[in-house]
Design brief:
Length: 207
Amino acid sequence: MSEDEKMYISYQNVHQLCQEAADKIKQFKPDLIIAIGGGGFIPARMLRSFLKEPGQPNVRIMAIILSLYEPTDDCDEESIGQKVVRTQWIDYHQSKVDLVGKNVLIIDEVDDTRTTLHYAISELKKDVAQQAAVKNADPNSTKFGIFVLHDKQKPKRADLPDEIMSTGNYFAARTVPDCWIAYPWEATDIVTHTKNAVAQGNDVFLP
Ligand code: 5GP
């Protein structure tokens, strides 16, 4: 697939990618899901059904919304973090969410330049440090994992911590070439979108 071609993904494909990834993610034992919106919302909800254990409550999903500024010409590497804008973050007080000592799974639909995931994890770690300080607890008792549907094979503009990348707690359902991925929730014509996905083999697959 060339870089200017789009890769069409159907809802059924997303559903199955979540199902497939769930077996591995269960080993991480997430206590909490943090979905990055908008693209992480639908995968997070689908994955949650596959993580459900009989007799146990559903894993809670918290939503954060991050937007990327378009890079400008005078943008240097050090400004990577500043290009991400928080549109919505966790209200810890109202939700009574405590990250300390938890296994926290961050979900986005795609790891492209990695800027968004880098920002999310850096900021969440600051929140953990604050919460741990208040309780006089160990901030390292919080473990982070990441789930994306697609990880694009390309040079990334930001890193993710070793504690995620070297522990097997980075879960990408598929590693894909660097092309534009068209997700079903963005489609304005879902029939044509799904036909395109089927034609590309990105619809239902037999596990
Ligand atoms: P990042 O470059 O920070 O890894 O990705 C930022 C955001 O850009 C992603 O969360 C996603 O919303 C959007 N994005 C990046 N690549 C693609 C793509 O191929 N398709 C779609 N639909 N969104 C993308």
